Amino acid sequence: MEIPLHYSKNKANKKERILTLLDTLGMKEKASEYAYNLSGGQRQRVAIARALINNPDIILADEPTGALDQEMGEQVLSIFKRINKEQNKTVLIVTHDVKIAKQCEGIVNIVDGKIY
């Protein structure tokens, strides 16, 4: 979780920033756990936290629900929707799953290198 902060210009209050973000994602109680002790959904939320820790304007998510069951996939999508609305972040999701795509505000189809 701290690796993205290593490359950040803002290194102040690292521990506090991490705990605040984990709390936002419902993971604060798992802050001291090793990754191998986390479920797939919990690991995905940690990955989202890593993506958010340096406060980017755009989040790029490549198949963010691909390895998750339906319920956990819905939770991850809900987190992205909340980030988009509450933090005014652009979230770009790449997916082959039409059900996931239909939950997004805009869809761009790319087939054989052509945009439709």
TrEMBL record:
Q: Name the UniProt key words of this record, in alphabetical order.
A: ATP-binding, Nucleotide-binding
Family annotation (Pfam families): ABC_tran (PF00005)
Q: Which GO terms describe its molecular function?
A: ATP binding; ATP hydrolysis activity
Specify the ABC transporter domain's residue ranges. Answer: 13-65
Q: Which family does it belong to?
A: Belongs to the ABC transporter superfamily.
Under PANTHER family, the record lists: ALPHA-D-RIBOSE 1-METHYLPHOSPHONATE 5-TRIPHOSPHATE SYNTHASE SUBUNIT PHNL (PTHR42798:SF7), LIPOPROTEIN-RELEASING SYSTEM ATP-BINDING PROTEIN LOLD (PTHR42798)
Q: What is this protein called?
A: Putative ABC transport system ATP-binding protein
